[in-house]
Design brief:
The chain has 13 helices and 22 strands. By secondary structure, it is α+β, with helices and mostly antiparallel strands. The chain has two domains: 334 residues, Beta-lactamase (3-Layer(aba) Sandwich), CATH 3.40.710; 138 residues, Lipocalin, CATH 2.40.128. Helix 2 runs parallel beside helix 12, helix 3 runs parallel beside helix 7 and helix 3 crosses helix 8. It starts with a strand and ends with a strand.
């Protein structure tokens, strides 16, 4: 598997692949990888450094689709029925009278996200048992089996069901039944929740090639190299439109229906979708798979842009047979995709204000960021560091100007193995930090967390005489809260 061929051998001009990658770069989409596969052959595979083909990447809600496949395995083994009521499997978790609507909620309804409504958030809950939290809610919103609404917590309950009935960890169960046959997922893992289950709605870490192989397996409807691993009937239903998932008449790229924790797309396709634009899009009619990883958290348009360009430039121009070789276009593609690098904020190469700011301390008024003071220290026009004091102490962010500087984020984060649990070993996230002069008196620092968690923060500083405005905006699952808000500061006299 993963034999590499040219786009022309796959049935599409290299010019279209080049146009697709160029479109992503033009709109400053924060990509980490792109794979395009026809059959079992790769005709495009690109990574934005420091990401590479061997580095496991956080998949966020793509994990949910893997849980759905595990439910299918249990169904094949006769260990459950999709019409079983979920509450019946966890009587030990229920210690309050359960609402009738939740009591009647079935496994099938949870797979289609036609549940009674989203449960309580768990990151900031004193109840660290997510199954208990889901089943002991104070109220429900509606009868199950009616309206589609995204229910991440419900997928976590299904993950716990998989582990209870299989008596195996989610990853171990899938590995035994499927992954080992694919020959992939050899360095993949799934993080845990504080109560000990696998974090099944958000935390698979695997490579882009792993994703592509899994997409291929599902698009084969459960068969792998002549061996049946999962029933075809289940997968055909799971990847079909079972419920309408539109919420308004403004149709987004994934508003084409929903199967069993699997999204429907244009061109009779289906997709596994994760926050930040972790995507596996499968088009059975074209025998075509598109995979990408990224961190576009905070962008209102990136997913639509990525997938619509894939549909319009790649899928719509894919032919059923190979094209004649086109050396000129293929060489253009190879040249334009050499040295792809992780997005960095960019601006002017320097500012006359640099010397004026260098080493000067600014004292902040009381503010929601809890930042007390800050100063910029420049090694040269190309590099420096932001030093600041916030509620967690003295911090330092080294940066390069108009490019990324890779290091460790100064704040402690979550455990590398347990979701929602603050680190106890002092570990910090890997980061990429870039600096830009947006104007002579306006600075942007862009921080990207590129670890088992992904996140980003835009730190903007604007100066007027002795005064400054500080504006931080973060997008991350449930961290970087000290990097979201505004402050006013004044030069220290």
């Amino acid at each position: 598997m993963f034999e590499k061929i040219t786009p022309e051998q796959a049935g599409i001009s290299s010019a279209y692949v080049n146009a697709f990658i160029s479109a992503l770069e033009k709109r400053r989409i924060h990509m980490h990888s792109v794979l395009l596969m026809k059959g079992e052959k790769l005709f495009a595979e690109y990574y934005w450094a420091p990401f590479n083909k061997d580095l496991p990447h956080r998949m966020y809600s793509e994990t949910k689709s893997y849980v759905a496949i595990a439910i299918g395995l249990l169904l094949d083994e006769g260990k459950l029925s999709l019409d079983d009521k979920i509450a019946d499997y966890f009587p030990e978790k229920i210690d309050t009278p359960i609402a009738k609507t939740l009591k009647n909620q079935t496994v099938r309804e949870m797979l289609t996200m036609t549940t009674v409504g989203y449960g309580s958030p768990w990151f900031d809950s004193s109840d660290r048992d997510r199954i208990h939290l889901y089943l002991n809610r104070a109220r429900t919103i509606r009868p199950s089996g009616t309206i589609w609404e995204y229910d991440s917590a419900g997928s976590q309950v299904l993950c716990a069901l998989v582990e209870k009935l299989s008596k195996k960890r989610l990853f171990d169960y899938l590995n035994e039944k499927i992954f080992t046959h694919l020959g992939t997922f050899t360095n993949a893992t799934i993080l845990s929740t504080p109560s000990g289950e696998s974090w099944g709605d958000s935390s698979l870490l695997c490579t882009s090639r792993d994703m592509a192989s899994f997409g291929r397996f599902v698009m084969n409807y459960g068969e792998w190299h002549g061996k049946r691993l999962l029933s075809e009937g289940f997968l055909r239903i799971a990847t079909s439109k079972l419920v309408d998932n539109t919420e308004t008449d403004h149709i987004n790229i994934m508003d084409h229906g929903y199967g069993y924790l699997i999204w429907r797309t244009e061109m009779n396709g289906f997709a596994f979708v994760g926050m930040g634009d972790q995507l596996t899009v499968c088009l059975p009619d074209l025998d075509l798979i598109f995979v990408c990883t990224a961190d576009n958290q905070g962008s209102p348009f990136s997913r639509n842009y990525i997938v619509s360009n894939f549909m319009d430039l790649i899928a719509s121009n894919m032919q059923n047979s190979a094209l004649e070789p086109n050396k000129e276009e293929y060489e253009k593609l190879c040249l334009s995709t050499q040295g792809l690098e992780l997005f960095a904020v960019s601006g002017a190469p320097d500012s006359p204000m640099r010397d004026e700011l260098d080493g000067v301390k600014y004292i902040c008024e009381e503010n929601e960021l809890n930042i007390k003071e800050f100063s910029f220290h420049f090694d040269s026009a190309d590099s420096g560091e932001l030093r600041y004091i916030n509620a967690n102490g003295e911090m330092c962010l080294p940066f390069f100007v108009n490019k990324n500087r890779f290091g460790l984020f100064p704040e402690l984060g979550y455990s590398q193995d347990v979701g929602g649990q603050r680190t106890t070993d002092g570990s910090r996230y890997k980061d990429a930090v870039s600096f830009a002069w947006l104007q002579d008196n306006k600075i942007r620092i862009f921080v990207q967390i590129i670890d088992r968690y992904l996140g980003n923060a835009s730190l903007t500083f604007a100066f007027n005489g002795d005064d400054a405005t500080v504006c931080f905006y973060k997008t991350a699952e449930d961290f970087l809260w000290n990097y979201n808000g505004q402050a006013t500061a004044h030069k220290q006299k």
